[in-house]
Design brief:
Layout: E1 2-11, H1 13-23, H2 30-34, E2 41-47, E3 53-60, H3 61-65, H4 75-90, E4 100-111, H5 115-125, E5 131-132, E6 135-138, E7 140-143, E8 146-149, E9 153-157, E10 161-167, H6 168-175, E11 186-193, H7 195-203, H8 214-217, H9 220-234, E12 240-241, H10 243-251, H11 257-272, H12 284-297, E13 317-318
Antiparallel strand pairs: 1-3, 1-4, 2-3, 4-11, 5-6, 6-9, 7-8, 9-10, 10-11, 12-13
Helix pairs in contact: 10-11
Amino acid sequence: MIHTFKLYIPLHYQEVQDLQKRFEIKYTDVNKYFEGKFPSVTMSISNSGNGQWKLYMVVDAIKLIGKPNITEADYESIEKELKYILWNVFGYTSHYKEHILLRIDFRYDVPIKDKNIRMLLMDLYKKQTKSYGFQRKYLGKLANGVFVPYETTVYHSSNSIESMVYLKSEEREAKGEKIEDYERDVIRYEIHVMEDHLYYMEKKKEKNQRPRKLVAYLKEDVYKDYFRKYMSQIYHPGDFYKIDAARKKLKSSALPTKDKLKLIEFLKQVSSNSIDTPLKKMSTGTFKSRLALLREVGINPVLIPKNYQSNSPVPSTLKNPLNDFPW
């Protein structure tokens, strides 16, 4: 369900003074002092300049409770561990209830042993929409004025939400970091719920208002809702097909012949560049109706390229890794 989250806890100036005196450190060294004892948490203390002191905590929930498959039922264990850290740092835990959630990363991992298939999926995902809502697609970054493409990451980002897909083993290897057993050969789907969105959800007046508390977000229905709202709108349902296999599946479907022909043409247009290409020649309403028909017959709108270059044979059909997500 989740991997990391970030929160802050308001502090009084006297608490900071007491901490410095007790451990004979500067408040800026709090993480350095405790990192060996609490490797699952990165801590920092800051003063915004108006007397408002805060303890920031970036938490690796998996390391915190020693469990990769975190569920709603694990909240009490997470809270217990966080309070234990606070007790060690400050000598009490009462201010945990004052915490403010600043970010939470929802995740869904799918192990795929074949690296060539993982790389094929990343190439298919690069053809997804260039934007969804306020999120914009990023396929690389500028380094010294030169565009450097991401090989194993695709993400859509706004100031409040990020939706991304990446290869976890390859990310660890690129950073020279240890690959955990639960990360090996994994393609990871993540939604980062950022500070602006969390603030908006707390302040909105509608019935689904949600406080900026960890317990409010560590819930199965909230997790599924964010995946439905953001991930499924960018990474479409349906298995992946080469054009001939898609034709065969459409031919055997119960759709009218005219719809089958329209869908074949639609798939060709998407294949020529990206999923946004058909919008150059059709209305948004028609575009959505084509996607709905493809969803009905279980075909992803992005085709496997007929002449895709790979180190191993390329399948004519490929199961969508998101098929098994508990939508």
